[in-house]
Amino acid sequence: MSKKNNPISIIIEESFLSLKKYLETNISSNEAVFTASFVTNLHKETLSILEICTVLNQDATFIQKINQEVNPLTSRGLLFKVEHFFLSDMIALYDQESIKKSEKSQFVLAYYYDALRNNHFADENSINELNQLVFTEDFKKHLLKIKKENTIITSNSNQQKSKYLLPEALAEQNHDKLKEVLIKYQNFLHFAFDKKFESTTDFNFFLGLNLNKPKSKNKEVGNFPEEDTLEKVLEELNQLVGLAAVKKDVGELINLLEIQKKRSKQGLKNVEITLHTVFLGPPGTGKTSVARLLSRIFKHLDFLSKGQMYETDREGLVAGYVGQTATKVDAAVESSLGGVLFIDEAYALTQNAFGNDYGAEAVNTLLKRMEDHRDDLAVVVAGYTEPMKIFVGSNPGLRSRFNRFFYFDHFSPDELFQIFESFCIKSDFIVSEDAKEKLKDTFELLYAKKDESFGNARVVRNLFEKCIQNQANRIVKLKKISNKTLKTLTEEDIPEPKETEKSIGFATKEENL
């Protein structure tokens, strides 16, 4: 197959940013857009991207699967390489920020094209000519051609996917290159638009990616227990590690509802109180657990008839075709009547990155059903703090119905250790003194490095499972294994703090530019 017809080949012999035909032309002088050191940094960055591409291109399974996302009927002989997916996503990033485009951002996109598709790097020693080049009409025309010819059009009709092909495919396969690729995407935005993100959560939200948990279906959880009492619920709440502010908020809500009941019995008028609540905070901080407890509390106080909780997310509410979304929302509400409808990562319903308004349809349908069933339905929406504030503020109906906010904070190092100990107690393990010290050092380090996406109790759960695997590997070959040996986690079983930090994937400031 010729290079011209092969979508994975180097398609142009002469590099786009070659200066040969510009050096002898008489171009008027313009103010410098970028410096030689800037071009040098672009060179280093795109070289490291090409190294990632080389590794991924050698992963035949990944290449086949990502190409099937583009075209499920693709043959093995016509496969796009990772460089092409990278460039297509860079174009999408550029277009998403196109309102801020400038000669600098146009040059960055052109540079990435030349590096990824042609393995050519503009000469930083010709910085004056490069600064003149970006103002020419020929340059702008060629850039439009690049965008048109290098945007990959997917035939997959799944409207719930992010429009960024490479990270979506890596996330679905839980690929170990995902974090590196996401850093490169952030770096592109930094080079092109001087855009930075305060946390990985903000960046994932910008991309429309949900990388913190596997996609789930609707699931009914927390059916009302038999012989349950309000005292039992409050005891369970108080036994949760940390969450002092949330426990205080729940206590104050109970006080308000109990007084409402007493006023009603005395024939006094009451102000209508909404049970709908917003939970804000990072993952693994107990939002789902508290929502389950709230459903039981509302039942015991006679504000809900059943007290069950129904848990869902965007995937459980949004369909890929007009009209189907309302049906899915109705089904979720029907299963929640008499209890709590818990919508995790609710901000995803209004993310523009999905490229459709089915999420908006879900919100509008939900608002109507909340009004229809306002006497026997409580809706709890949960997610990261800033995205949730944007979500609630995006619709007047949401703002009017959700005016109660519970804030969930990161667990402290001591609280993370308490959670680890609780996992041990539930599973018949004990921790030696030297292991305790190592764990505390680990949690101090993780807490110091955390951002909003830090998984808190989820991270502790993963670490606990790693420790018991290490213990099993250590003792399996012993001839005699006592009960104490089976139960005890020693210092040797605890990964080094830096190893745990690395496994979580905290990016350094240097990696993020």
From TrEMBL:
One Gene Ontology MF term: ATP binding
Residue span(s) of domain AAA+ ATPase: 273-412
Keywords: ATP-binding, Nucleotide-binding
Keyword hit for ATP-binding: yes
Domain of life: Bacteria
Renumbered residue ranges of the record's region Disordered: 492-513
Keyword Cell membrane found: no
Biased composition (Basic and acidic residues): 495-513
Pfam families: AAA (PF00004), AAA_lid_6 (PF17866)
Family recorded in the similarity comment: Belongs to the CbxX/CfxQ family.
Protein name (database record): AAA family ATPase
